[in-house]
Design a protein that fits this description.
The chain has a single domain, classed as Nucleoside Triphosphate Pyrophosphohydrolase (Alpha-Beta Complex), CATH 3.90.79.10. β6 and β7 form a beta hairpin. Helices cover 15% and strands 28% of the residues. The chain is built from 3 helices and 8 strands; from the N terminus they run αββββαββββα. The protein is globular and about 35 Å long.
Length: 175
């Protein structure tokens, strides 16, 4: 099972959160100043960081439908999970996507900002990514994957923490 904000935590917040071929108008890399810092959990109560992948391919975004918890089951998200202590957000996202979708990704750049995950103190950051090896397949946490064009982003019921990032993603997708 993925380490993405645990099913219990996600259920408690009312069901929240739950290969482009060179065609994206985005930089091939991001400077270290623009990347989220390494996350080090500390006894000072630093809240865990949750990272998600806006996986893009030929003007489409990959959406994943949750299977659990019951409050989030059937709703759609950008796949990802929690950053472990001492792990960089890039490394966490690559690990989580391999675990959840069985493929490898390359992080292209991080979208600006973060979104709170309910009242848990968790913060969600989203990175634009490309599939670098394999094909995404639903795993334990998801029962379906869909590639959505920019005009289809509103056709699915997104979990709340992912919603603030959709306008940025929509701007990256080709019409």
């Amino acid at each position: 099972m993925s380490r993405r904000a645990s099913a219990g935590v996600r259920g408690l917040v009312g069901g929240l959160v739950g290969r482009a071929r060179g065609t994206l108008p985005i930089p091939a890399s991001t400077s270290s100043a623009e990347r989220p810092a390494r996350h080090d959990a500390s006894p000072t109560g630093t809240p865990p960081l949750v990272v998600a992948a806006a996986v893009v391919d030929e003007g489409r975004l990959l959406a994943a439908r949750r299977t659990a918890p019951p409050e989030a089951a059937g709703r759609w998200e950008l796949p990802g999970g929690k950053v472990e202590a001492g792990e960089s957000p890039d490394a966490a996202l690559i690990r989580e996507i391999r675990e959840e979708l069985g493929c490898s990704i390359a992080v292209v750049h991080w979208l600006p900002g973060s979104a709170p995950i309910g009242t848990t103190g968790l913060a969600l950051r989203v990175a634009v990514c490309r599939v670098s090896e394999g094909s995404p397949e639903p795993g334990v946490d998801h029962d379906s994957l869909r590639w959505l064009g920019r005009e289809q982003l509103d056709d699915v019921d997104w979990l709340e923490p992912d919603r603030p990032f959709l306008s940025s993603v929509r701007g990256l997708l080709l019409g």
